[in-house]
Amino acid sequence: MGSKIYVGGLPYSTTEQQLSDLFAVHGAVTSSRIITDKFTGQSRGFGFVEMSADSEAQSAITALNGTELGGRTLTVNEARPQEPRTGGGGGRGGDRY
Fold it and tell me: How deeply is 53 buried, as exposed, middle or buried, from its count of CB atoms within 10 A (0-12, 13-18, 19+)?
């Protein structure tokens, strides 16, 4: 069972390979993903890393949280499940015919 880690405060130029390399020092990285804007394709400044062992993930969180990368301070912690989204579509309330 692996651990998913949230990484915030990334420089917008960071690549998924650079993110993976940053965490690989602390253990086996199974995946890394930079979140991008769906319209422009530009980085949103955060991403996720999955590591194969919980102990390695905890070590990486402890070592990297609050450190600097490319002039920006990283926020590194255990990823939480995505909150369900609310609101959304317009629509008209009730029948008006």
Answer: middle
Strand 43-51 vs strand 3-8: parallel, antiparallel, or unpaired?
antiparallel
Question: Which residue is associated with the tokens 């008209």?
Answer: 92
Distance (Å, rounded) from C-alpha 10 to C-alpha 91? 38
Non-local CB neighbours of 55 within 8 Å, separated by 6+ positions: 27
Q: Please tell me whether the overall predicted TM-score, pTM, comes out greater than 0.85 for this model.
A: no
Which region, left, alpha or beta, applies to residue 63 given φ > 0 means left and ψ of -120 to 50 means alpha?
A: alpha
pLDDT tier for residue 2 given thresholds of 50, 70 and 90: low
Task: Tell me which CATH code domain 3-78 carries.
Answer: 3.30.70.330
- Tokens 């422009």 -> residue: 40
